[in-house]
Amino acid sequence: MDRMRKIKRQLSLTLRGGNSGDKSLSETISSQDTGAHSDSEAMPVGGSGGLRGSVRGSGGSFSMHSLLQSYSSALRRPRSLGRSLSSYLNHTTRLEIVHEDVKMGSDGESDQASATSSDEVHSPVRVRLRNNPGRKISTEDINKRLSLPADIRLPDGYLEKFSLNSPLFDKPLSRRLRRVSLSEIGFGKLETYVKLDKLGEGTYATVYKGRSKLTDNLVALKEIRLEHEEGAPCTAIREVSLLKDLKHANIVTLHDIIHTQKSLTLVFEYLDKDLKQYLDDCGNSIHMHNVKLFLFQLLRGLNYCHRRKVLHRDLKPQNLLINDRGELKLADFGLARAKSIPTKTYSNEVVTLWYRPPDILLGSTDYSTQIDMWGVGCIFYEMSTGRPLFPGSTVEEELHFIFKLLGTPTEETWPGITSNEEFISYNYPRYRADCLHNHTPRLDNDGVELLSKLLQFEGKKRIAAEEAMRHPYFHCLGERLLTLPDTTSIFALQEIQLEKEPGMRTNSLSESVNSISQRQSLLF
Amino acid sequence: MSSPSPSSTLSDSGFEDELLCSPVRCASDSQVCDYEDSETCFIIQRLNQQQFLALNCLSRQPQITAEARSKLVSWLIAVRRQLSLSFESCCLAVNIMDRFLITTSVAADCFQLLGVTSLLIATKQVEVYSPRITQLLSLCCNSFSREQLCNLECLILLRLNFRLAAPTLAFFLDYFTSRFTGHQTGEFISAQNAHLHKEPSSAENKWRWLACKVCELSLADYTFNKYMPSVIAQCALKLAKDLLKTQSVQNSEDNTGASKMLCCEEEAPLTCENQLLFQQCMEDLKLLVSLNQEAVQDTR
């Protein structure tokens, strides 16, 4: 009984937390934020009462479990978990470990974690130490065991501590053991990272350039404020839940997640600039070979997502990061989502306006992976010419630009278009399709053909990412690109080299420009 | 009504191979394209569900019982109707809640907060819009504060390591019904006519409704915690078919529609181990339905 009271108090303390600062009541929601909340008011008391009534009825349903329970006299009370909120026993290994008594909050967490680590390393309860006199544990062993990056530098003394805790090597690694080990090394802690420069600030988050003390590598720290009145932003939740399962050479890597009282910090690998900055630095004239390499990498990363039925839904130059080597990576999965079937109602307020497909502009919420391919086409054009393709400022103007170039759709070119009320209401003039060749003088025939296949009115007619990777436009890059492992960069092949940009500004000037400019790709 | 022939081939082939192959592009036939798309989704989801199974989630809870869980889940089902949320949100919320219960002891007086917080997280993951926190708190008669809910939200996300892409009962239910009937629907309960290729028959609607009712009962019942969502969905559909078959014998006027539906192609043969699990799940569902007769009466 006393133990239960302690558990209750612990959970209450956890939920109550420390004192929060003043909470901002204002809420800015961009039109493209799928996290926008419904405008419906809070439920009236009467309605709530009604719901309670119906709930009481539902509660009356007969439980199979309770029926089975009444037949089983041998059933005993469930065993208690002890005092800890966060203890978790691994049933498979039957390994019992000292219980954590963890409070949320960086100070409390740090102290308790330290105490816990000390207990575990020096005097684990009921853990039998085994003598392995001939065994040496190296950094390589630990990295492999915990799936750490190869270049990590473990804290002083960790190797020695680790040797005492040999169960890590003798038994299957439970999720909790891994978490404790990672915490000892420094993951999940703000002290592990040093903030360097502020890169930008948005509605929900601020992004800093930083350095990891563990690897000496640069990182991007996306600090998400938790004072929002509706809790954690859905953009952050989706980004993490989707991104942590995506491991590809052309997708930005999420290294770590840190929780403090007021913020949730996502630690990403750092890349020097985004594609828009790259274009600016080149004076809007990229070497055509580099255009090809960037486009291929974009398609490669996107194909990986689409094979997993993940839609990015916000492709634009600002969300494509590029490093010195020329590696391009998809970033900002805040608007991404997993595609489920049958088609559910998705928002049509996704994708930045200039890169939004016409079917979405006309209100379609029935889309799949093809939603991203229109954006690829717009980006392909922009890399080739240095100008955005359809820079509209309103939905109506955006559609106007599209139809002016590709022709106003008819029942022949877009079956069903004359039934679209929105299209009818706009009453566009009848434009004939222009020739794409005239607008992309630097592209060869294969490039223009690929661009045309990307810029199709109907989603189902747009070329898929995988098919696009095999298009003749890329044949000069060789076939080995198509069989590389997912986590291998295309630049691992000797024949793949980024061409020098004649118009590229010097590094020092470029660096100072970068530090000033907004890194939009990392903001919400 | 017939399913495309590749389905049997897919069932026979190794899943790992299929996962790495993209569906063949069919520019001319959108029906086949939709089919290929749904098959890929199904294969991915079927492979993923094992790692999201919250087996025996109450085994170490000192205060939360199976009965308490049943009441809370039944309440969440009513809440999701009240707030017009998708069944997928409801299923995902229950999965999030169950997986959290594996990691953390929860006091009985905080259990309802765990339920609504899990629902909030689920809606942020899968809905276009999420309910307001004030709405959710008022449904709990304001027994909890916004601060408590927000703190618990973060705790849940961190404990589950942000792993929220659980394949749900709703997904498999939609998948199997769509495959059997050849219809694409936007939402299981309230079919959206805009997405229908043709209007489903009243028999099909009754079948879907009844199968969903059975799934709701299984969601709230702790006994079904051990079954994979794909197994429960298939068993629920088969049971609904059997129940309607019984009804159709009693009601000759509806016989034509029901018998037409009963010709649906069955799932590919299961392995011996799966066969046993399938039969056990079917028996459990039959018992569950017999205990809750009024819940599955057609009130529409």
UniProtKB/TrEMBL annotation, chain A:
InterPro entries: CDK, Kinase-like_dom_sf, Prot_kinase_dom, Protein_kinase_ATP_BS, Ser/Thr_kinase_AS. It catalyses: L-seryl-[protein] + ATP = O-phospho-L-seryl-[protein] + ADP + H(+); L-threonyl-[protein] + ATP = O-phospho-L-threonyl-[protein] + ADP + H(+). Residues 193-474 form the Protein kinase domain. PROSITE patterns: PROTEIN_KINASE_ATP, PROTEIN_KINASE_DOM, PROTEIN_KINASE_ST. The keyword Glycoprotein does not apply. Pfam families: Pkinase. One of its GO terms (molecular function) is ATP binding. Residues 46-57 have a biased composition (Gly residues). Its EC number is 2.7.11.22. ATP binds at K222. Signal peptide: none annotated. Keywords: ATP-binding, Kinase, Nucleotide-binding, Phosphoprotein, Serine/threonine-protein kinase, Transferase. Residues 21-37 have a biased composition (Polar residues). Residues 1-57, 105-130 are annotated as: Disordered. Belongs to the protein kinase superfamily. CMGC Ser/Thr protein kinase family. CDC2/CDKX subfamily. This is cyclin-dependent kinase. It comes from Danio rerio.
TrEMBL record, chain B:
The keyword Cell division applies. It comes from the Eukaryota. One of its GO terms (biological process) is cell division. Keywords: Cell cycle, Cell division, Cyclin. Gene3D superfamilies: Cyclin-like. Residues 74-158 form the Cyclin-like domain. Belongs to the cyclin family. Cyclin AB subfamily. This is Cyclin-O. It comes from Danio rerio. The gene is ccno.
